[in-house]
Amino acid sequence: MAKYIHKGLLTFSLGNKKLSNRTLIFNIPCKYNCNGCYDKKALIYPSARNSRIKNMMGSLRSDFVETFTQVLRENKSKFDYVRFHEGGEFYNQDYLDNITQIVYNNPDIRFFVYTRELFNLNFNGLKSLPNINIVNSIPFGINNYCHDIKWLVRTLKSYGAKRIKLCGDTVNETTKCGVNCHYCMQKGNDIVIFKQH
Question: What predicted TM-score, i.e. pTM, was given to this entire model?
Answer without folding.
Answer: 0.82
